[in-house]
Amino acid sequence: MKRRDFAKKATLSTFATLIGAEIVFGSRLLDGYSPLALQDPDPFKMFNKHKDMIVLNDKPWNIEAQAHLLDDNITPNSCMFIRNNGLVPEGNDAKKWSLTIDGESVVNKKTYTLAELKSKFEQHTYQVTIECGGNGRSEFNPPAKGNQWTVGAVHCASWTGVRLRDVLKDAGVKSNAVYIGYHATDLHLSRDPNKEPISRGCPMWKANEDETLLAFKMNGEDIPLIHGYPLRLIVGGWPASVSGKWINRISIRNKVHDGAKMTGDAYRMPCKPVAPGEKVKDEDMCIIESMPVKSLITYPKSGAMIKEGKALNIRGHAWAGDLEVAKMEYSIDFGSTWKSCSVEKPSNRFAWQHFKASVNFPKKGYYEIWARATDSKGIAQPMLLPGWNPKGYLNNACHRIAVKVS
Ligand SMILES: Nc1nc2c(c(=O)[nH]1)N[C@H]1C(S)=C(S)[C@@H](COP(=O)(O)O)O[C@H]1N2
Ligand SMILES: [Mo]
């Protein structure tokens, strides 16, 4: 058999195994063609996601959870939303991975292998709530372009890694440092290697917090590829876009980082409130820092049927960016009156806080349960949509579920 025919036969048998059936006229398949059945990858299998997850986009992959999938205290991989700005890098090898610290404000540019990071610096584990700045975007009117997230672009997993500040300190930080910016290995959608899909960062004070990690484990295991294997930045309380995946370089900057999606209107809000639909100049848009207070009812699932005369035990989580959640309430009369929920302390800073309440209904009929969190500065979630903005960020309106008592 000629080499080429042999290769073709081997490919065909691989295709057949993947499809689970003989490809009857396979020998006539033109070179370079792959069967259609293999061109439609199943994201649920590929990423190990729960069947109730919702695919918003496949180029790039963007997949969201639903409120009832987020019931666990620590979100399992199967229920974590996926947000990509570019193409997922291929062939990441933890054994060959390294991280370079550079930039105008580094004392000694330094490169660490992943093994060095793990052995040289103390390891820490924190539960961190990570929410996409665009979570809730689908409610804005006029609509904002971008993924139409409903409520499911948030998760709270447990992350293990080394503190970014320990690594920065080891390389040396000049006194004129103001910001860090990350660089990662994902490819721009255009496949142009000179373009980065995203390269964001945060001020030095945020980079230096205890919980800001260079993480290599998620929920006790290697981070799944889609969530940043083998090294990811974890920055609690701020838009998830600051938590860069597939990190191989961090620059210590002497000015606000100006990487992709740091400038223009990306991840920025109008510095002053604007009317719905109003055009806002780039220079009037301000970088989003701490995320606002928010909560989710994760049990029961919206649409639950309740027996008359029985109390319903509801539960969920609440979080408040850089702050803590101080109070949690629910309403069954469309926000006219509120009753308190019990709310736990976070297991560490930036972990979401679990709440519960026992709800009684006066009679048979349709109800909505609304949940409202208040942060430690006394700011509560708005009952209705907060300020419209051109990119549809920071919708922290109260979460509602429907129930029927019969
Ligand atoms: N390298 C890289 N990091 C990234 C992104 C990306 O596209 N590339 N997306 C960011 C955005 S916008 C979000 S919301 C989170 C999503 O994290 P997840 O996919 O692990 O849920 O990753 C952030 N980190
Ligand atoms: Mo995001």
Plain-language structure description:
This protein is mainly β and 406 residues long. It folds into 3 domains: 38 residues, no CATH class; 234 residues, Sulfite Oxidase, Chain A, domain 2; 112 residues, Sandwich (Immunoglobulin-like), CATH 2.60.40.650. Helices cover 10% and strands 31% of the residues. It has 5 helices and 24 strands. Strands 5-4-13-8-9 form a 5-stranded mixed beta sheet. Strands 6, 7, 10, 11 and 12 form a 5-stranded antiparallel beta sheet that branches. A 5-stranded mixed beta sheet has the order 17-24-23-19-20, with no helix packed on it. A hairpin with a 2-residue loop joins β1 and β2. The longest helix has 17 residues. The termini are far apart. The model has no long low-confidence stretch (mean pLDDT 95). It binds ligand MTE and molybdenum atom. Keywords: Metal-binding, Molybdenum, Oxidoreductase. This is Sulfite oxidase. It holds the Pfam family Mo-co_dimer.
Key features of this structure:
single chain; 406 residues; mainly beta; Sulfite Oxidase, Chain A, domain 2; Immunoglobulin-like; five-stranded mixed sheet; five-stranded antiparallel sheet; 24 strands; binds the ligand Nc1nc2c(c(=O)[nH]1)N[C@H]1C(S)=C(S)[C@@H](COP(=O)(O)O)O[C@H]1N2; binds molybdenum atom; oxidoreductase; Sulfite oxidase; Mopterin_OxRdtase_euk; Ig_E-set; molybdenum
